């Protein structure tokens, strides 16, 4: 606030450079934006995806993943998840590839990296772009490679609930610097120079509008938060990992289904800890369970109802929940427990006690 510069400027540049270094990239390979939704939209545009194209993605994701595909005029094509990983099933992808398919958009669900070797092999053989939705996966790695650096583009969210937050915010990573300069331009109205450079000490510089862009820029106020968030990313990850493992130990004897342990070749982002409440096994439905947790003052969430459950996609794309049975079943049973690094040990034990009691009733 005291610097006198609130818009896109030196702090955004510093945050970009620090995020790039965190990912082992050069500053020319990243661009900060104001959400992951914007990051996905601009990545699809920069990949040349347009009207009539198809993009393959997962049904178990936040609506922004599919909406970004629709906003460039393309059609999202769903491939069901592998129920063990809850990520897109690589063995099913090729069945959905057509002459119109232009990209694969995997989501590293809950922070567990997708099967990227298989996905990149398919993309290479079919000449498809790979855009990684890394909204849950800031800290995740796959066989030593950082999430967001394996595909052509990686998209990150700094929304309030995410592992690193700027309140609202996002980042695009790209293997090549050229699409990043396009993303940068499209994030600020399609203008050739950003405002910070326009009003620099060297004097006023004219800008030109060279394509039809958007208002997707991150501002220095957001980046100033992000710089400090990034400094504690490892500490917060360690804490969430400890809470995740405590839940895993404490809840394993209950009739709920706990997440699988991450395999040794990945580093899990520990963004979500999700239980499956199967009414036949647990004696109560997921929604009744959620009500009991709420009654104990414990905030729980659903990540996610499968995309084909939503009326918009049913009406406009003809999707039906039976099209992706694994995602639909999980969407109807899943519940996410609190996983904030700010939870105390006592609070974690209180969550565990409430889960045990809800199931005992
Ligand atoms: C949060 C989220 C998004 C959207 O992020 P915003 O920064 O809120 O636009 C996209 N995809 C997934 C998987 C998410 O969880």
UniProtKB/TrEMBL annotation:
<dbReference type="InterPro" id="IPR015421">
    <property type="entry name" value="PyrdxlP-dep_Trfase_major"/>
</dbReference>
<dbReference type="GO" id="GO:0008483">
    <property type="term" value="F:transaminase activity"/>
</dbReference>
<keyword id="KW-0663">Pyridoxal phosphate</keyword>
<dbReference type="GO" id="GO:0030170">
    <property type="term" value="F:pyridoxal phosphate binding"/>
</dbReference>
<dbReference type="InterPro" id="IPR000653">
    <property type="entry name" value="DegT/StrS_aminotransferase"/>
</dbReference>
<comment type="similarity">
    <text>Belongs to the DegT/DnrJ/EryC1 family.</text>
</comment>
<feature type="active site" description="Proton acceptor">
    <location>
        <position position="162"/>
    </location>
</feature>
<protein>
    <submittedName>
        <fullName>DegT/DnrJ/EryC1/StrS family aminotransferase</fullName>
    </submittedName>
</protein>
<dbReference type="GO" id="GO:0000271">
    <property type="term" value="P:polysaccharide biosynthetic process"/>
</dbReference>
<dbReference type="Pfam" id="PF01041">
    <property type="entry name" value="DegT_DnrJ_EryC1"/>
</dbReference>
<feature type="modified residue" description="N6-(pyridoxal phosphate)lysine">
    <location>
        <position position="162"/>
    </location>
</feature>
<dbReference type="InterPro" id="IPR015422">
    <property type="entry name" value="PyrdxlP-dep_Trfase_small"/>
</dbReference>
<dbReference type="InterPro" id="IPR015424">
    <property type="entry name" value="PyrdxlP-dep_Trfase"/>
</dbReference>
<keyword id="KW-0808">Transferase</keyword>
<keyword id="KW-0032">Aminotransferase</keyword>
């Amino acid at each position: 606030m005291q610097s006198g510069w609130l818009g896109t400027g030196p702090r955004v540049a510093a945050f970009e450079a620090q995020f790039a270094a965190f990912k082992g990239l050069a500053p020319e390979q990243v661009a900060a934006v104001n959400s992951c939704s914007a990051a996905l939209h601009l990545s699809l545009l920069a990949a040349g995806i347009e009207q009539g194209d198809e993009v393959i993605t997962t049904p178990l994701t936040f609506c922004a993943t599919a909406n970004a595909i629709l906003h460039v005029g393309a059609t999202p094509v769903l491939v069901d998840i592998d129920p063990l990983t809850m990520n897109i099933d690589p063995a099913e992808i090729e069945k959905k590839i057509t002459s119109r398919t232009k990209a694969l958009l995997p989501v590293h669900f809950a922070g567990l990296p997708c099967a990227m070797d298989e996905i990149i092999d398919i993309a290479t053989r079919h000449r498809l772009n790979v855009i990684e939705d890394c909204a849950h996966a800031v800290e995740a790695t796959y066989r030593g490679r950082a999430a967001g650096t394996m595909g052509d583009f990686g998209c990150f969210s700094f929304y309030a609930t995410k592992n690193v937050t700027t309140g609202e915010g996002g980042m695009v990573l790209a293997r090549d610097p050229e699409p990043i300069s396009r993303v940068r331009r499209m994030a600020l109205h399609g203008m050739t120079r950003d405002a910070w450079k326009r009003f620099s000490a060297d004097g006023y510089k004219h800008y030109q509008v060279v394509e039809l862009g958007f208002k997707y820029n991150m501002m220095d106020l957001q980046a100033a938060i992000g710089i400090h968030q990034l400094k504690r990313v490892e500490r917060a990850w360690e804490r969430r990992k400890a809470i995740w493992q405590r839940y895993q130990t404490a809840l394993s004897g209950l009739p709920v289904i706990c997440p699988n342990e991450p395999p040794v070749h990945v580093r899990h982002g520990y963004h979500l800890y999700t239980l499956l409440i199967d009414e036949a096994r647990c004696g109560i439905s997921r929604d009744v369970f959620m009500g009991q947790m709420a009654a104990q003052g414990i905030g729980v969430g659903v990540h996610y109802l499968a995309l084909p459950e939503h009326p918009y996609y049913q009406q406009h794309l003809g999707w039906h929940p039976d099209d992706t049975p694994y995602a639909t079943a999980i969407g109807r049973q899943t519940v996410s427990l609190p996983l904030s690094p700010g939870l105390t040990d006592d609070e974690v034990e209180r969550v565990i006690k409430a889960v045990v009691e809800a199931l005992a009733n």
